[in-house]
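Postdoc handover notes: sequence design on the structure in folder B. Input tokens:
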């Protein structure tokens, strides 16, 4: 998790990167160091606020914890291989701070919330859904929550209550996204994967725009900007400065955080 100091430090570097980008060409055309510095500082504040605002708007539309596809695939495959009891134990690990009663087919949380799962069916159909609900309908509970691999049936999505019990259906992806500790969950199964990665264009872009490179680009651009005041061919230096500061800004503002949908609202009050 990013500390307050790291957050403030990154914001300062973001702002300075924008200042440098504006200053380079203002000073080049205006030939006045002091005026260019003042104007670029003021303009950069406006640019910084606008960029931060749009990034926050973008983040609210995405998930706060971006799904790591490779980790999720491993997690999903293990859940499919697991027995029903093993999967219930996995779900139970997400709710350890609650009173939990374990049975053969479901979990009872706080004496009023039933949780069960079906990770054997690739596409969770209404037939499977009603079969599970029917097996639990005589139990006293306020809610029934079912976890499945994938849900595409619109009928299930539109059901909110059955026999005065609130119904919640979540996918395995929802469970994974809302419980970061599951990435390190110890499964009884051993699956070996091919670790060879394809060196494609997307991988190259990810490496170039890695956040860890932001300050490297920034200080390289700053060094070139300093040299541009003393060495001929100023325009060439400024072009490379612009490229480096632009890369630095893209790295600083690069984000992988997403906002997840409300998960188990009856247990996790927000």
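Designed sequence:
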């Amino acid at each position: 998790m990013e500390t307050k100091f790291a957050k403030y430090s990154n914001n300062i570097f973001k702002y300075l990167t924008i200042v440098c980008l504006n200053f380079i060409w203002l000073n080049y055309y205006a030939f006045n160091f002091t005026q260019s510095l003042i104007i670029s500082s003021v303009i950069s504040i406006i640019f910084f606020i606008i960029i931060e605002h749009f990034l926050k708007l973008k983040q609210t539309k995405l998930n706060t914890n971006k799904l790591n596809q490779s980790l999720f695939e491993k997690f999903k495959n293990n859940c499919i291989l697991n027995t029903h009891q093993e999967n219930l134990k996995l779900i139970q690990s997400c709710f350890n701070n609650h009173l939990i009663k374990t049975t053969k087919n479901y979990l009872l949380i706080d004496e009023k919330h039933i949780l069960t799962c079906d990770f054997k069916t690739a596409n969770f159909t209404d037939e499977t859904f009603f079969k599970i609900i029917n097996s639990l309908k005589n139990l006293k509970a306020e809610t029934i929550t079912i976890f499945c691999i994938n849900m595409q049936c619109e009928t299930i999505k539109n059901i909110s209550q059955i026999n005065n019990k609130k119904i919640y259906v979540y996918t395995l992806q929802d469970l994974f996204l809302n419980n970061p500790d599951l990435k390190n969950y110890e499964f009884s199964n051993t699956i070996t994967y091919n670790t060879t990665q394809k060196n494609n264009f997307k991988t190259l872009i990810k490496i170039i725009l890695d956040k860890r490179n932001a300050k490297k680009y920034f200080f390289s651009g700053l060094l070139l900007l300093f040299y541009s005041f003393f060495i001929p061919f100023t325009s060439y230096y400024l072009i490379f400065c612009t490229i480096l500061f632009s890369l630095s800004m893209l790295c600083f503002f690069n984000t992988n955080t997403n906002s997840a949908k409300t998960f188990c609202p009856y247990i996790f009050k927000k």
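Context for whoever picks this up: The chain has two domains: 4-61+210-253, 69-184. Don't rerun without checking with the PI first.
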